[in-house]
Amino acid sequence: MDNSKIIINPKEEDLLSFMAKVELLANSKSPIVFPNRGSKFAAIVLGKIFSCAKNNVYIKANNFSGEISNEDNYIDGLKMALSKSVNFTIIVDDEKCVSINVSKGMQILLDYVDYGLVKIWHIKNNTDNINLNFCIADKQMFRYETESATHKAMCSFNDEKRTLIISNIFRNLLKESILLK
Fold first, then answer.
1. 123, 129 in Cβ contact below 8 A?
2. Whole-Å CA distances, 41 to 46, 81, 110, 117, 123
3. β-strand 56-61 against 134-137: which pairing, if any?
4. Could you tell me if 41 and 5 are in contact, meaning their C-beta atoms sit under 8 angstroms apart?
5. 8 Cβ contact list (under 8 Å, min separation 6)
6. Strand ranges (E), the chain
7. Whether pLDDT at 4 is above 70
8. 92, 121 Cβ separation under 8 angstroms
9. By the 8 A CB rule, do 115 and 130 touch?
10. pLDDT tens for residues 94-148?
11. Which of 144, 141, 166 is nearest to 154 (CA)?
């Protein structure tokens, strides 16, 4: 399950193998905490978190450059969650990512702002958390990056304890943010 080596252009079979393992962990609601690294692998995990979510997804992202949020796995999971009326609360460091058309994922999210399913916030003057990227869902699933440049992260589909810790970080960041959309 460890894809902690950076695979810049992963082979299709590597992605399919990883996707099958992620699917198994998600479907069994496994408490296993597993590592992953790289944008394509991140998109697989995030897409699965989105599609498994039933109520709420919270995202803290530097920006939505499209490196992850343009990947099909990400987009498919995002669409599935929104079709189930899952609420998204997002904090971004770079407020410009909301107004430029770089990320397919952000464009989809912006389409749902008017329906009340998506709220996008901008963190103001918080240099301590400038490179912090994570996602939590339904008080049990998470993907938390430990190295943003390579998207190295720890993830789980059923770890309430770690998700609560990350939720507290998110709540504190939200207190320092202003609503954009």
1. yes
2. 9, 19, 24, 26, 26
3. antiparallel
4. no
5. 38
6. 34-36, 56-61, 87-92, 118-123, 134-137, 141-147, 152-156, 177-179
7. no
8. yes
9. no
10. 777 777 677 899 999 988 888 888 999 988 766 565 678 999 999 999 999 999 8
11. 144
Higher per-residue confidence, 93 vs 40: 40
Residue carrying the six token digits 């397919």:
104
Is the torsion defined by CA of 2, 139, 56, 103 positive or negative? negative
Consecutive H or E run containing 51: helix 39-52
Task: State whether residue 152 is helix, strand or coil.
Answer: strand
**Closest to 65 in 3D by CA, of 34, 43, 80:** 43
- Residue 5: is its pLDDT beyond 60? no
**pTM for the whole structure:** 0.91
3-state secondary structure of 168: helix
